[in-house]
């Protein structure tokens, strides 16, 4: 199995380009199922997860091709309505086909995703929402079967907690429903906004983009579209944190600084210098230069729904805090089991204690952090171990790197171009 080897302790320098957002591409690929025809999606990252979603669309009867970063999906002749266990178990976002399949053909059968490394992650809010639109759902043999009793009819759906894929599923189910659907306490993440832009371009009538209350007036028909996927804010944030953790100066291009308000605030508090342009960041960390006199300051973070601090950057930020002065508290409020990286960071010498949903991080001087063999447990934990390995001295060997390939396009190559001593070994 492939591994990543990192010889840490080098500052990052140069320019890096950000890819399209995985978590925007996945619902947008699913939304092509809504209407027969040829859709053009620009800036689609070539990742394990986007390939899994394309495979799923293929099992449903769609065809696709890729030219550069543009993916063409032809959904003219759907032949199936089932997301099988083998695909759902590798990618939970497969549940995103439920909404569009219900809207297009009134029936879908999708394997129920089990728990995963970061928590139980049920889909009860999705199913409750569908039921309010007139769908009957049953669970048999590990599969959710969803069937429209008559036609989909608009309703008011309230989520107990904002759910990103739940909001996306309900949006896709309701755009062709009869009457008006109101989603209250909807997720406000930019990826939801990207899907709304696509649905509006298809002909849907949706109001409230960017707010927690979405109003969808059902329309009679939609047409295929061309749409641009937004830049990946989590990939962007991962590089911002990596530069702060290693020192150096990097220009991060093809990104949207407006999508990372909480992270930039916290990075500045730690000691990083950040210049924001309309679609680029320039980040440097003078406090890290010379590394023997690391002057990064610890800060507390609490993960929240957008625009709060993203849970998908919590592990990476912790890789920065392990070498900052003082004690920092990292409080995770979205997922109940998102500290799997802690035990691996401890192998590098990090001083972290977990107390329920909080981790207490006591920063150490960089020379006390030294490379070690570690194991990736999920996508963002893997990225945090890459950052920790870049910051620690000596060799860090990361195994189970397939997690990383689910969500970061060419990460090893991008970091090599910034001067990191990182390579993939078989
Ligand atoms: N929840 C429920 N019931 C539901 C839905 C959600 O209890 O029916 C709970 C979850 O267990 C969690 C919280 O609500 O505690 C929020 O979960 P959400 O539904 O928002 O998460 P998601 O839609 O499954 C997306 C991203 C995740 C990201 C979260 C939070 C995609 C494909 N996935 O997941 O991305 O962490 O939102 O922002 O958009 C990643 O990219 O590494 C990743 C895990």
Structure description:
The protein has 426 residues and is of the alpha/beta class. The chain has 2 domains: 3-19 and 231-425, UDP-n-acetylglucosamine1-carboxyvinyl-transferase, Chain (Alpha-beta prism), CATH 3.65.10; 22-228, UDP-n-acetylglucosamine1-carboxyvinyl-transferase, Chain, CATH 3.65.10. It is built from 14 helices and 24 strands. The chain has helices at residues 22-31, 48-59, 85-88, 98-105, 124-132, 164-174, 190-202, 233-246, 261-270, 314-321, 340-347, 379-391, 402-405, 411-417; strands at 3-8, 12-17, 38-42, 63-67, 70-74, 82-83, 107-111, 135-140, 143-148, 156-158, 180-184, 205-207, 213-217, 226-228, 248-253, 273-276, 280-284, 301-302, 327-331, 351-355, 358-362, 373-375, 394-399, 421-425. It has a 4-stranded mixed β-sheet with strand order 22-23-1-24. Strand 16 and strand 17 form a beta hairpin. Helix 1 (22-31) runs parallel beside helix 2 (48-59) and helix 5 runs parallel beside helix 6 (164-174). The longest helix has 14 residues, at 233-246. The protein starts with a strand and ends with a strand. The mean pLDDT is 95. It binds uridine-diphosphate-2(N-acetylglucosaminyl) butyric acid (EPU). Uridine-diphosphate-2(N-acetylglucosaminyl) butyric acid is lined by residues 23, 26, 93, 119, 121-126, 161, 163-166, 187, 191, 311-312, 334-335, 379-380, 407.
Main β sheet profile = 4 strands, mixed
Task: Note the beta-strand portion.
Answer: 25-35%
| CATH class categorisation of the largest domain | Alpha Beta
> N-to-C terminal Cα separation, in Å?
6 Å
Give the beta-strand count.
24
With strands numbered from the N-terminus, the spatial order across the biggest sheet is 22-23-1-24
Number of domains: 2
Q: Supply the helix-strand structural class.
A: alpha/beta
Ligand catalogue: uridine-diphosphate-2(N-acetylglucosaminyl) butyric acid
CATH fold-type name of the largest domain: UDP-n-acetylglucosamine1-carboxyvinyl-transferase, Chain
User: Unreliable runs, pLDDT <50, ≥5 residues?
Assistant: none
Helix content: 25-40%
* Number of helices, counting only DSSP H or I runs of 4 residues or more: 14
Mean pLDDT: 95
Evaluate the radius of gyration.
22 Å
Describe the global form: elongated
State the fourth-level CATH superfamily of the largest domain: Enolpyruvate transferase domain
CATH architecture of the largest domain: Alpha-beta prism
């Amino acid at each position: 199995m492939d591994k990543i080897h990192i010889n840490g302790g080098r500052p990052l320098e140069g320019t890096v380009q950000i890819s399209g957002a995985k978590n925007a591409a996945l619902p947008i690929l699913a939304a092509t199922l809504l209407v027969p025809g040829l859709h053009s999606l620009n800036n689609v990252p070539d990742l394990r997860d986007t390939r899994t979603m394309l495979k799923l669309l293929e099992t449903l009867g769609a065809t696709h091709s890729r030219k550069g970063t543009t993916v063409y999906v032809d959904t003219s002749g759907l032949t199936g309505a089932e997301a099988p266990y083998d695909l759902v178990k590798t990618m939970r976002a497969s549940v995103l086909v439920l909404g569009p399949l219900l809207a297009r053909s009134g029936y879908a059968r999708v394997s129920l995703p089990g728990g995963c490394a970061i928590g139980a992650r049920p889909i009860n809010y999705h199913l409750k929402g569908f039921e309010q639109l007139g769908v009957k759902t049953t669970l048999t043999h590990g599969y959710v079967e969803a069937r429209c009793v008559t036609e989909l009819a608009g309703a008011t759906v309230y989520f107990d907690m904002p759910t990103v894929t739940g909001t996306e599923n309900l949006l896709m189910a309701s755009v062709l429903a009869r009457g008006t659907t109101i989603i209250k306490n909807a997720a406000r993440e930019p990826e939801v906004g990207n899907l709304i832009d696509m649905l509006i371009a298809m002909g849907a009538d949706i109001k409230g983009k960017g707010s927690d209350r979405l109003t969808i007036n059902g329309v009679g028909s939609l047409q295929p579209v061309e749409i641009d996927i937004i830049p990946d804010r989590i990939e962007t944030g991962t590089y911002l944190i990596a530069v702060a953790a290693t020192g150096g100066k990097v220009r991060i291009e093809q990104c949207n600084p407006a999508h990372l308000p909480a992270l930039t605030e916290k990075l500045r508090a730690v000691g990083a210098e950040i210049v924001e342009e309309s679609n680029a960041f320039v980040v440097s960390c003078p406090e890290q230069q010379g590394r023997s006199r690391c002057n990064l300051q610890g800060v507390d973070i609490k993960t929240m729904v957008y625009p709060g601090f993203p849970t998908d950057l919590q592990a990476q930020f912790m890789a920065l805090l392990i070498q900052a002065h003082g004690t920092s508290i990292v409080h995770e409020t979205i997922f109940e089991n998102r500290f799997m990286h802690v035990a691996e960071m401890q192998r590098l010498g990090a001083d972290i204690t977990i107390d329920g949903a909080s981790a207490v991080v006591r920063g150490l001087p960089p020379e006390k952090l030294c490379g070690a063999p570690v194991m990736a447990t999920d996508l963002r934990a893997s990225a945090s171990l890459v950052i920790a390995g870049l910051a620690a001295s000596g060799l860090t060997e990361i195994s189970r790197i397939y997690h990383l390939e689910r969500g970061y396009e060419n990460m090893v190559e991008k970091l090599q171009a910034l001067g990191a001593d990182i390579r993939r070994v078989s």
